[in-house]
Structure formats: structure tokens, C-alpha cells
């Protein structure tokens, strides 16, 4: 299972970001191994970040997204793409992996 985690930093010692669509980074894991750290190109700018991030993660074949908060637009887009999601907060990435 491929898991994408919204992150405040680029490694597994980072905090889970409270902002789903606007998270600074997304870390992609498979079998507890970090495959990729992506600087979120949608972290700043105008609306539509949640949709854009969901589509970006779908292109990466992600099965589950973990973030501190997932907004309505991102939730809708993840459901549309068949990606599960889980809200986690106040934890380090290492704790949920």
C-alpha cells in the first residue's frame, strides 16, 4: 500500500502537517520505506489546492492520504479517485508509519 503523508518537512521525523492541500511537503511511503519527498507545488497560491493535490497523489498511485486536516474539496477529489484518507494531528510521521 502506498501512503502519502502531508508533512511540515522532508523526512519521517517531521510533524504531520495540519493543512492537507496546503502542506509544504508530501512524503510517499510503501512498506514503511520512504520512496519520495515531494515539495507541494500547490502549497501557496489561489484556490483549488485540495483538488490539485488529490490529482497529483492519484498520479503517484497513492492508496491512502494522511494529514492533520483534509478540507471538503480535497475530500471530494480523493473519494472521486478512490483514495482513502485519514485525519491525524499532533503526531510525527514516524509514529503513524
> Which regions contain 5 or more consecutive residues with pLDDT less than 50?
none
Tell me the strand order in the biggest sheet: 3-2-1-4-5
Helix content: 10-25%
Number of domains: 1
Rg is 12 Å
Q: Find the CATH topology.
A: Nucleotidyltransferase, domain 5
Sheet of most strands: 5 strands, mixed
Average pLDDT, all residues = 94
From the N-terminal CA to the C-terminal CA, the straight-line distance is: 12 Å
Q: Can you tell me the CATH class?
A: Alpha Beta
Give the topology string: H per helix, E per strand.
EEEHEHEH
Say how many strands there are. Answer: 5
Question: How would you sum up the global shape?
Answer: globular
CATH architecture: 2-Layer Sandwich
Name the beta content range. Answer: 25-35%
- Briefly note the structural class of the backbone: alpha/beta
Give the helix tally: 3
Please describe what this structure looks like.
- With 97 residues, the chain is α/β, with parallel strands linked by helices.
- The protein has a single domain (2-96), classed as Nucleotidyltransferase, domain 5 (2-Layer Sandwich), CATH 3.30.420.130.
- Helices cover 25% and strands 28% of the residues.
- The protein has helices spanning 49-59, 72-80, 93-96; strands spanning 2-7, 25-30, 33-39, 64-67, 84-87.
- Helix 2 links the parallel strand 4 and strand 5.
- The chain is globular, with a radius of gyration of 12 Å.
- The model has no long low-confidence stretch (mean pLDDT 94).
Amino acid at each position: 500500500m502506498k501512503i502519502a503523508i502531508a508533512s511540515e518537512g522532508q523526512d519521517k521525523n517531521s510533524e504531520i502537517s495540519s493543512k492537507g492541500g496546503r502542506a509544504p511537503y508530501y512524503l510517499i511511503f510503501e512498506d514503511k520505506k520512504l520512496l519520495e519527498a515531494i515539495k507541494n507545488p500547490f502549497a501557496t497560491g489561489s484556490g483549488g489546492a485540495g483538488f490539485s493535490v488529490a490529482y497529483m497523489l492519484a498520479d503517484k498511485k497513492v492508496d491512502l492520504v494522511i494529514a492533520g486536516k483534509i478540507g471538503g474539496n480535497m475530500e471530494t477529489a480523493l473519494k472521486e479517485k478512490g483514495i482513502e484518507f485519514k485525519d491525524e494531528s499532533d503526531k510525527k510521521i514516524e509514529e503513524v508509519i
